[in-house]
Design a protein that fits this description.
Layout (H helix, E strand, L loop, with lengths): L3 E3 L5 E3 L37 E2 L13 E2 L43 E7 L7 E6 L1 E6 L6 E2 L10 E6 L2 E6 L6 E3 L2 E2 L2 E4 L4 E4 L2 E7 L2
Parallel strand pairs: 3-4, 7-8
Antiparallel strand pairs: 1-2, 5-6, 5-15, 7-9, 9-10, 10-13, 11-12, 11-14, 14-15
Length: about 210
């Protein structure tokens, strides 16, 4: 014999229950002591988990609710999963606000004075910021501007901004540094100069 039976609405439920627990409870039936999970009875909705917040009362005492203090998750939008934390109740009726990200500061608090733009690293273009003081360029990840180029030395080139001027110095690299297609070991940079190290080409732009 089957352990389940079928109600008039097409729900299978255990034989030992008199009424189908999935069907809406008749409006005049009162509280029969059985759970009402449908849209017409208690507040339950099988489509999602509900969390009742604060002093919100559940009209159907048979439906298990989770009473959460308002400052710990109550009062939120039940149509989506929400994450709350601590006692932060500044967002969404008790839900923690999204993490506020601070704008990125300059390199160690130094003023930005220019940048390098390359279309060889990325065909759509990529730029690197230059800051006051020393800017080391090379294939080593510890450089201020790391370059993924096998022809670039680990510490290839230094660009220095001091007293309003940009100076460059090749750091005894294997393949050298070329400024506007001329091999140079050190000198001054001016806005618009083309810098080639290994197979990578940069255009230098000054905003100082």
């Amino acid at each position: 014999m089957s352990e389940f039976k079928l109600c008039d609405n097409g729900h299978y439920f255990p034989q030992n229950l008199e009424n189908c627990p999935y069907c809406p409870k008749p409006a005049n039936s009162g509280n029969s002591g059985q759970s009402s999970l449908g849209n017409g009875g208690g507040q339950g909705n099988l489509a999602r988990t509900q969390i009742f917040g604060g002093n919100q009362k559940n009209d159907d005492d048979d439906f298990p609710s989770f009473n959460v203090p308002k400052n710990q998750g109550g009062g939120g939008n039940l149509n989506r999963t929400q994450i709350f934390g601590g006692n932060n109740n500044d967002f969404g009726g008790g839900f923690a606000s999204p993490q506020q990200f601070q704008p990125e500061l300059g390199s160690q608090g130094r003023k930005m004075v220019g940048w390098l733009v390359s279309f060889t690293i990325d065909a759509l273009g990529i730029d690197y910021k230059l800051y006051e003081g020393r800017n080391l360029i090379g294939s080593d990840e510890g450089c201020d501007i790391p370059v993924d180029d096998a022809a670039v030395s680990s510490r290839h080139l230094t660009i220095l901004h001091r007293m309003g001027q940009f100076k460059f110095k090749d750091e005894f690299s294997t393949n050298g540094t070329f400024i506007n297609d001329v091999f140079m070991e050190e000198g001054n940079l001016k806005d618009g100069d083309m810098i080639r190290i290994g197979d990578t080409i940069f255009k230098f732009r000054s905003i100082a």
